[in-house]
Design brief:
The complex is a heterotrimer of chains A (506), B (95) and C (131). Chain A has 506 residues and is α/β, with parallel strands linked by helices. Chain A has 17 helices and twelve strands. Chain C contains seven helices and no strands. The chains are: A alpha/beta (506), B mainly alpha (95), C mainly alpha (131). Chain C: It is found in: Mitochondrion.
Chain lengths: 506, 95, 131
């Protein structure tokens, strides 16, 4: 009974989704050949088509699951039993690794700081009074309830601006970095659409930037998706060459969410200034974690997320330069709050929590930095001590709190399954539900197999040394175990070149 | 202009930071506040400037208030212990 | 379901009862309560603690403290500052650990005077609340 309701619900979802995905596929299929591209962009675009497959990964994985269920239902019960046995025997062997630790807790260690961070108790403390007494609408200017809340909102805005050397008037509150990124890519492009038709971004951007840019293709814009080198960095010469007279925006993320690579922001800022193109950076993973200065780096727009800096979820901000003024068309129409760029009543508890989180990032910068660096170095050293492992992305231009390591001859998904005592992800949260390998690692030139066997580790303010020690030990043990049952590993040990093998299809 | 605290007052304040940090039920918060309390007090220990010490003392008292409230909240909403936490070492029950 | 409820609520109850020394003491006078938290009150009562036993436990606390630089050779004459290299802040922290071990509260003024293992042991054995 229950199952039937669920099933019909999901098919409804699928129906609702279908028109959307087919529409985008259709639109890009028809618009692509017609458009005029510079030679460099045209070459890139053919490769970029693979990005299209990511548009509806949820449905893809649902389809796959359905197909699997069908297949297993059709096969004999005996086969199912064998699969089951292999599965459970593997699991018992893995469980044995922490069976001996009785007397210890069961909650996994949290190592997915790129997805989100725990809310700092000091942030919660700041927020609580907004639920007990400070409930005024910050936009009410006729009474003290409004004034007192408004004062707190403006204090928060100051804290947020200070961290990037901006003026508080240049901060616009949004629901998060995804909204900020959409606001920029769509808003700037739409505002200047009469004269400018071109956007530049990179292939390793967060999904929301890539998808927003893709949406602008449908509105008649051209987008150059710059490739990155194997370290994950954009080539500055290539970036400069891609700028055209009708380019309105360059959007390059500050710190990559999957590999932790820091892009050369200052240099990109200089190039953009020289060519009078707006420079936007998605700093969701960078804000408060690396030194950022919008004036020194010539950043015109900068996206911030609160829950990546131990603040509350559901809020973010966009820095919009005032001098020289950056114009953008707002996504929302309404009462004209936030300089008319983002209408809608602010959420003071979230704003204040976000502000306190920013203040703490400033106050604890050196302390956090030293702590994270120390643990990160230890973790990298410990993980790379295993055979056939490597660090993805630049070793020098990186934020130490984000570590991405490939474990060759181990399937990432099975490793994650085997690591239920550690909360980890193989990539960004939005794609980890699917079995698709990370597009970021693909952009770095990693093959499918290696991209599949990569795991991302996030270290933050609240990570402890004891946890890092545990993770190193657990990963090393389980990688060894998974390899010991892997036929591929056996072949490697025997000295067989895997590339020489011809795989038969199935 | 706040009054300059005595040596004993500073030590007493430190003791309260340690005790309250110790009482967080959440492992990560407990370890963090212990670490940061140690760090901050050690860092500020050599400061001689009376005015500066007075200001730090005042700010630390506000922080202690936060710690006292938040440790209680941490004790109100509890979760299973982490896999690295032995059942014995908990946010200490005594205060 | 119910079990998880109990599991999560038990430490809280314990904490409440022992939250203030007064409550803890009055609770221990009720024999019936002993079964409630047997390990906490097993030695409750007026009986003074054995000095050797206290010394051993203090030394264990120091060893577990992990900050001292001569952990292996701690004797009653060991000085916190001179022998263990603890500064005044470290000593405060060590004494918090001692307080928790013996379920007592050392007044700040007295705590500041305790410079050695022996002095600490003397204070504990003279304190009727220690257990």
């Amino acid at each position: 009974m229950l199952r039937r309701t669920v099933a019909s619900g999901s098919s409804m979802m699928r129906m609702a989704k279908l028109p959307l995905s087919s529409r985008t596929a259709l639109a890009s299929a028809t618009t692509l050949p017609r458009r005029h591209y510079s030679p460099a962009a045209a070459v890139k675009l053919t490769n970029d088509i693979s990005l299209e497959t990511h548009t509806d990964t949820q449905m893809a994985s649902r389809d796959q699951a359905a197909a699997r269920a069908e297949a297993s239902a059709g096969s004999s019960a005996k086969a199912a039993a064998i699969i089951d046995e292999i599965d459970t025997s593997g699991r018992t062997a893995l469980n044995a690794a922490y069976q001996e630790n009785t007397g210890f807790g069961t909650r996994p260690i949290y190592m997915d700081m790129q997805a989100t961070t725990p809310t700092d108790p000091r942030v919660l403390d700041t927020m609580l009074k907004f639920f007990t007494g400070l409930y005024g609408n910050p936009h009410s200017n006729t009474h003290s309830y409004g004034w007192e809340t408004n004062k707190e909102v403006e204090t928060a805005r100051d804290h947020i601006a200070k961290l990037i050397g901006a003026d508080s008037k240049e901060i616009v509150f949004t629901s998060g970095a995804t909204e900020s990124n959409n606001m920029v890519v769509k808003g700037v492009a739409r505002f200047y659409k009469k004269t400018k038709k071109h956007i530049i971004t990179t292939r390793t951007e967060h999904k929301c930037v890539l998808e927003a840019a893709r949406a602008m293709i449908n509105e008649g814009f051209e987008v150059t998706f710059l490739p990155v080198d194997e370290a994950g960095l954009v080539d500055l010469k290539e970036l400069e060459a891609a700028i055209r007279p009708d380019t309105c925006l360059v959007s390059v993320m500050a710190v990559n969410n999957e590999i932790g690579v820091i892009q050369p922001l200052k240099e990109i800022g200089q190039i953009c200034k020289k060519h009078k193109v707006y420079f936007h950076t998605d700093a969701a993973q960078a804000y408060g974690k690396i030194k950022l200065d919008v004036n020194e780096m010539n950043i015109d727009l900068l996206s911030i997320s609160s829950h990546k800096i131990y603040g509350p979820k559901g809020i973010g901000a966009l820095y919009v330069r005032r001098r020289p003024r950056v114009r953008l068309e707002p996504l929302f129409s309404g009462g004209g709050q936030e300089r008319g760029l983002r209408s809608g009543t602010l959420a003071p508890p979230l704003v204040a929590g976000f502000g306190e989180a920013a203040r703490l990032m400033h106050q604890e910068f050196e302390s956090d930095q030293a702590h994270i660096k120390r643990l990160s170095d230890k973790l990298v050293k410990g993980l790379l001590a295993n055979d056939h492992t490597n660090l993805n992305g630049s070793a020098s231009h990186r934020y130490p709190g984000c570590i991405n390591v490939s474990f060759a001859y181990v399937e990432g998904e099975s490793l994650l399954m085997a690591l239920r005592d550690i909360a980890l992800s193989s990539g960004s949260a939005c794609t980890s539900a699917s079995l698709e390998p990370s597009y970021v690692l693909h952009a770095l030139g990693r093959d499918d197999a290696l991209a599949h066997s990569s795991i991302r580790f996030g270290i933050g303010r609240f990570t402890t040394e004891r946890e890092v020690d545990y993770v190193i030990k657990a990963i090393s043990e389980r990688v060894e175990f998974l390899r010991s049952i892997s036929p591929l590993w056996e072949m490697v040990q025997e000295g067989i070149d895997l590339d020489s093998i011809e795989w038969s299809g199935h | 202009m706040p009054a300059t605290p005595s040596r004993l007052q500073v030590l007493s304040l430190y003791k309260q930071f340690i005790r309250n940090s110790n009482q967080f039920n959440n492992f990560n918060f407990r370890e963090y506040f212990l670490r940061i309390s140690r760090e901050k007090f050690k860092e500020n220990a050599p400061i001689q400037d009376k005015e500066k010490v007075a200001k730090l003392y005042e700010a630390a008292q506000r922080d202690l208030g936060v710690l006292k409230r938040q440790k209680l909240i941490s004790q109100m909403y509890t979760f299973d212990k982490l896999v690295v936490e032995s059942a014995k070492d908990q946010g200490d029950s005594r205060s | 379901m119910l079990r998880t409820f109990f599991r999560s609520s038990t430490p809280l109850t314990l904490r409440r009862i022992s939250a203030s020394p007064v409550a803890a003491r009055s609770a221990s006078t009720f024999i019936g309560r002993q079964s409630f938290t047997p390990m906490r009150f097993y030695s409750a009562g007026a009986a003074k603690l054995d000095k050797d036993e206290v010394t051993r436990r203090v030394i264990d606390v120091i060893k577990a403290f992990g900050k001292s630089n001569a952990a292996a050779t701690i004797t009653p004459t060991t000085l916190f500052n001179k022998d263990l290299g603890l500064d005044s802040l470290d000593t405060v922290e060590l004494l918090v650990a001692v307080e928790e071990e013996f379920d007592i509260e050392i007044p700040d003024k007295i705590a500041d005077e305790l410079k050695s293992v022996a002095e600490t042991v003397d204070y504990i054995t003279s304190n009727a609340d220690a257990n």
